[in-house]
Amino acid sequence: MDDETWETIGRLVKRLDEHGTASPETVRLLRILKIGEEAGEVAEAVHGAMGSNPRKGHSHTWEDVQKELCDVVLTAMVALRTITPDAQRVFRENLERVAARDAPR
């Protein structure tokens, strides 16, 4: 992820912080828990795209699934930035670790 992306995430975190009333510990917890909420929305969209719920039918599209997946990624980035000001480095190092682990040998 580039610097501009992380600057945007930083602005989102700042805006959320300015409008929050919870303690810092609660804010961290709630932002991490929000990832699970967003993941549930991905699952709902997949079910809707596949028409697997007979009561609802085809209630979503695969574009809806894409949007919900982006929400998960953004929510995780906000949570990571909330728990560390060095989120960009932490993410980059973990991405490199995973990529190296899966590199051909």
Mind explaining what this structure looks like?
There is one protein chain. This protein is mainly α. Helix content is 77%, strand content 0%. The chain has helices at residues 3-19, 24-50, 62-83, 87-101. Helix 1 (3-19) packs across helix 3 and helix 2 runs antiparallel to helix 3 (62-83). The longest helix has 27 residues, at 24-50. The radius of gyration is 17 Å and the shape is globular. It starts with a helix and ends with a helix. The mean pLDDT is 96.
Notable features of this structure?
single chain; 105 residues; 4 helices
Give the SSE map:
Elements: H1 3-19, H2 24-50, H3 62-83, H4 87-101
In brief, what are we looking at here?
This protein is mainly alpha-helical. It contains four helices and no strands. Helix content is 77%, strand content 0%.
Strand-and-helix sequence, N→C?
Answer: HHHH
Instruction: Note the beta-strand portion.
Output: under 5%
- Give the structural class: mainly alpha
Helix content: over 70%
**Radius of gyration computed on alpha carbons:** 17 Å
Shape descriptor = globular
Round the mean pLDDT to the nearest integer and report it.
96
Question: Biggest sheet: strands, sense, closure?
Answer: none
User: What oligomeric state do the depicted chains represent?
Assistant: single chain
Low-pLDDT ranges: none
Question: Based on DSSP secondary structure assignment, what is the total number of beta strands?
Answer: 0
> What is the terminal separation in angstroms?
26 Å
Q: Helix count?
A: 4
